């Protein structure tokens, strides 16, 4: 029986600008993964119309869902029969079955049962630990059983759980329905399902990261998927020919940009901020309205930030090349700088110079993004988080800090040289007095979708 797992994401560069091509973003795939696994599949000789019944078990949410997709000629429709409403699952079923019909696979009706399992880091474990009389620390988080059932009203940690779930769910269904494991087809069907479930076409970096892992991302044209968004606001059926026109391989969606992952020696550390989260759609709308107002202004903040992001990402690419071309010197540079406050560092050799250039570029991106927030009157980097980020940046080995993605109160991140530096940041966050910061267990995992 197949299973498919997809990683969560952390956008560390390109917030807001990634909505608009040709701007780029750097999205980090993380070790938190959403897994969908088939536990049962039965076939029934088909009597028209053919049906595909999908039962979804979610032990972490103590929930069960039942969907029935019906194939009538060239149209596939879907209905949810049981369970709380879940548009991401509903449209995952609709477009996976439509993709099967599009490729002429499947003659029998079938009934599939799957389980959904999410890494604990997608959700706050605070309620579970406090119920046991424990504080939230790295040590206590490590003691939480894998795929722990959630306790009470639980908040997300901003790792893109809906995108990871949709991608793993679609991939698992397509594999079980005999469609195969074509990664780009899975990506496109998952993007369609995720967009329709949200009722809008976003930047798509979260589904792309769930499929391909750590990536330099440039947004796919909205026209690739907007044909699926026309008509009913919450469609319950799709013409097979329409899905074919949308996902056909002849049309390029996202041009791949080579990036193997963070440079050797550099790690991602993520902290959960217990401040209630932020309303990302409203923040994006306000920033894009401001962006429109300055579009004709020469060398405006938006364009400055776009150039700074490109420079920063280029330096990280060069550091990846340096790590393989000059192994000993690169490793020595990481070792020395991991024990140094980078703002005070003086380069010893070209390898250290490249790291310090990246440190300066990261700081420029953070400053310009904060200025964009002030100009658009959006709290991309809330003033209350600035002292925390500044003090984190002043720790030895810290290359970059910020509020990932759209910013706000969801989380903070640090890019840190050396494992000792990671432990140093975690310890500092756990003892920070200004607010409650809980380090998460996630690290970068550059792999994308895994199907077994």
Overview of this structure, please?
Belongs to the GHMP kinase family. Mevalonate kinase subfamily. It comes from Bodo saltans. Keywords: ATP-binding, Kinase, Lipid biosynthesis, Lipid metabolism, Nucleotide-binding, Steroid biosynthesis, Steroid metabolism, Transferase. One of its GO terms (biological process) is steroid biosynthetic process. The chain has 452 residues and is α+β, with helices and mostly antiparallel strands. It has 2 domains: 3-247, Ribosomal Protein S5, domain 2; 266-451, GHMP kinase, C-terminal domain (Alpha-Beta Plaits), CATH 3.30.70.890. It is 39% helix and 22% strand. Strands 1, 2, 3, 4, 5, 6, 7, 8 and 13 form a 9-stranded mixed sheet that branches. It is globular. The model has no long low-confidence stretch (mean pLDDT 94).
**How many domain units?**
2
CATH topology description of the largest domain: Ribosomal Protein S5, domain 2
Number of helices: 14
User: What CATH architecture of the largest domain do you see?
Assistant: 2-Layer Sandwich
| Overall outline | globular
Q: What is the name of the CATH class of the largest domain?
A: Alpha Beta
Describe the sheet with the most strands: 9 strands, mixed
How far is the first residue's CA from the last residue's CA? 8 Å
User: How much is the radius of gyration in Å?
Assistant: 23 Å
Strand residue percentage: 15-25%
SSE run? EEEEEHEHHHHHEHEHEHHHHHEEHEE
Structural class: alpha+beta
User: What does the average pLDDT come to?
Assistant: 94
């Amino acid at each position: 029986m197949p299973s498919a797992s997809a990683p969560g994401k952390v956008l560390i560069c390109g917030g807001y600008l990634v909505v608009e091509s040709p701007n780029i973003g750097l999205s980090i795939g993380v070790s938190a993964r959403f897994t969908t696994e088939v536990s049962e599949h039965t076939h029934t000789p088909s009597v028209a119309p053919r049906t595909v019944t999908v039962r979804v078990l979610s032990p972490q949410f103590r929930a069960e869902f039942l969907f029935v997709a019906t194939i009538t000629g060239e149209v596939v429709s879907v209905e949810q029969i049981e369970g709380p409403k879940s548009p991401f699952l509903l449209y995952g079923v609709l477009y996976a079955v439509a993709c099967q019909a599009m490729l002429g696979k499947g003659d029998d009706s079938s009934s599939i049962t799957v389980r959904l399992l999410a890494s604990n880091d997608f959700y706050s474990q605070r309620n579970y630990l406090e119920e046991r009389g424990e504080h939230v620390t790295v040590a206590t988080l490590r003691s939480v059983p894998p795929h722990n059932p959630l306790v009470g009203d639980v908040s997300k940690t901003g790792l893109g759980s809906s995108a990871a779930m949709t991608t793993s769910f679609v991939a698992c269904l397509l594999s079980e329905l005999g469609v195969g494991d074509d990664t780009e087809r899975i990506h496109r069907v998952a993007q369609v399902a995720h967009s329709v479930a949200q009722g809008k076409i976003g930047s798509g970096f979260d589904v792309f990261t769930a499929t391909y892992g750590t990536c330099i991302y440039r947004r796919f044209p909205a026209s690739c998927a907007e044909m699926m968004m026309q008509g009913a606001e919450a469609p319950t059926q799709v013409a097979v020919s329409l899905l074919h026109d949308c996902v056909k391989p002849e049309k390029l969606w996202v041009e791949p940009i080579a990036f193997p992952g963070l440079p050797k020696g550099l790690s991602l550390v993520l902290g959960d901020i217990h401040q209630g989260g932020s309303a990302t759609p409203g923040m994006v709308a306000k920033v894009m309205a401001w962006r429109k107002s300055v579009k004709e202004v020469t060398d405006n903040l938006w364009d400055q930030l776009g150039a700074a992001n490109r420079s920063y990402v280029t330096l990280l690419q060069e550091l990846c090349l340096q790590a393989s071309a000059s192994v000993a010197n690169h490793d020595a540079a990481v070792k020395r700088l991991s024990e140094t406050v980078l703002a005070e560092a003086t380069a010893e050799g070209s390898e250290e110079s490249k790291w310090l250039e990246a440190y300066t570029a990261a700081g420029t991106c953070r400053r310009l993004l904060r200025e964009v927030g002030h100009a658009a009157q959006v709290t991309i980097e809330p003033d209350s988080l600035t002292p925390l980020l500044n003090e984190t940046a002043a720790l030895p080995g810290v290359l970059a800090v910020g509020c990932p993605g759209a910013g706000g109160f969801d989380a903070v991140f640090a890019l840190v040289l050396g494992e000792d530096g990671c432990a140093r940041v975690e310890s500092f966050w756990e003892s920070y007095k200004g607010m409650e910061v809980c380090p998460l267990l996630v690290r970068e995992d550059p792999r994308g979708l895994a199907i077994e």
